Amino acid sequence: DVTNLDDAGPVSLRSCLTALGPRMVFFRVGGTIRQTSGPIRIIEPFLTVAGQTAPGGGIQLNGKDISEDMINIYTHDVVFRYIRIRKGKGPATGPDEGHPVFIAQGAFNVVLDHVSLAWTEDENFTVFGNGGPPRSITLQWSIIAEPLAQHPTNALVGAHEGTTANDITNAPYYFILLLFLNSISSLFTIMPYFLSIPIITP
């Protein structure tokens, strides 16, 4: 169980997400966790994060103290539910390329349900494969919103040259609200190496 709002250390969220073996993460505390020591890299499979168990107003991650990704998923059978992730403007003097969630090469059977992702300077939600495209990635009943002006993109699904968008299979989006302030049009474009979704303002 997560029993504190520390960035790292015993019974922190980071320690639970990076632990070995199958695990279910429950919260005995609610509030904001400020990430200060870099990305949380999930490489061990069979993980369920049950944010709905957090008391009070739930759990939020704040990444304004880092210039890197917040959550990296490199593995399979991972579920995140009821979590708010806010990147924010990091400490870097140039463009900040950190993502709230980056699902990387080789990942599969990943579900994000009832999450909200916001305030990135790159993409709020990225599925991108460099050495084996991710597959079976589901984002549902979620909000992706308010990317910052440096690179106002809500979501990107793709792979580097040599892999086509068709190689990233089973990446459904169900009942997603995508919002930002810098566009008044909807775009859904398949390009040679990625599916780009810089979508929608109400």
Structure description:
The longest helix is centred in the N-terminal third of the chain and has 5 residues, at 13-17. The protein has 1 helix and 15 strands. It has 202 residues and is mainly β. The radius of gyration is 16 Å and the shape is globular. It has one helix at 13-17, and strands at residues 23-25, 31-34, 40-42, 47-50, 59-62, 71-73, 76-86, 101-103, 108-118, 123-129, 135-145, 153-159, 173-179, 189-190, 194-197. A hairpin with a 3-residue loop joins strand 14 and strand 15 (194-197). The strands form 2 sheets. Strands 1, 2, 4, 5, 7, 9, 11 and 13 form an 8-stranded parallel sheet that branches. It has a 7-stranded mixed sheet with strand order 3-6-8-10-12-15-14, with no helix packed on it.
Quick recap:
The chain has 202 residues and is mainly beta. It is built from 1 helix and 15 strands; from the N terminus they run αβββββββββββββββ.
Strand-helix topology:
Blueprint: H1 13-17, E1 23-25, E2 31-34, E3 40-42, E4 47-50, E5 59-62, E6 71-73, E7 76-86, E8 101-103, E9 108-118, E10 123-129, E11 135-145, E12 153-159, E13 173-179, E14 189-190, E15 194-197
Parallel strand pairs: 1-4, 2-5, 3-6, 4-7, 5-7, 6-8, 7-9, 8-10, 9-11, 10-12, 11-13
Antiparallel strand pairs: 12-15, 14-15
